[in-house]
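HUMAN: Can I see a protein plus its fold?

ASSISTANT:
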Amino acid sequence: MTGNAPNPAPSLARIARIAPRIAGRSPRAWTLFLTITACVIAADLVVKNLSFERVAGQPLHLTASPDGPVVRYQVHTPVGPIQTTYRDVLTAYHPGAELRVPLHATPDHEPVPLVPYVLELKLVVNAGAVFGLGQGQRWLFIAASLLATGVILYLFARSPAKAWIAQAPLALILAGALGNLYDRARFGGVRDMFHLFPDVHLPFGWQWSPGVTEIYPWIWNLADASLLIGVFSVLILSWKFPQGVGHTPGRAPGNAPAPSSASAAAPAKQAKPADGDTPAE
């Protein structure tokens, strides 16, 4: 007796139904992902530009140099205003002194409190990574940011189309990486301005390093916050959903229901012949 054996290979129609469920082939998933990324990058650059124009009382101008970022600002002299660096100003007042002041040092200015003892604006140019690590490794950080961009895009494209809870953190990571990549590529360093818990010091005389007693002495920006929030969100989701967001237990690949053990073990039932029919020999 011959019959039509089921074809184990998926049909083209089935592949067409499954493919749009991958985020890389879903216009809606791409729209959400790119919208979050673009909004965070835009907000980060706006905050950076406004802060470096207004917080110090005058605009601070950044340029890139072989030695790293250079911050210039206007100083009034007897011959008129000139554009100079903070290191040059200190050297003028202390001739011959060996001042270890980088060219990207910002001039002394009063921080702008946003929430007293919680958050203030204080301008710093960081030639390193988060928390000031790896100072002067500009091209290494640019290469790392480009590599991270490729990894994030790959993870997004392979995620389920409706797994927005996983795609949003990936968009935050990408926005943080690209926001700081722009600064490193254009200025040679990253513009930072947010200072948490100003004038709140460690208890019992503790110090992070000699003379550093504030609870949170690091200065950061919106891109840093986006990057860290995205990374921590991915770690939490990986712990909460070890098989991946969007995975449904008991489902076979392709979102098709997996056969139960009872139905898989039961033999196939043969059709009962009708009255008057003779079974084939």
Q: What stands out?
A: The longest helix spans residues 27-54. Confidence is low (pLDDT under 50) at residues 248-258, 260-269. Residues 71 and 77 are 18 Å apart (CA to CA). The two ends are 9 Å apart (CA to CA).
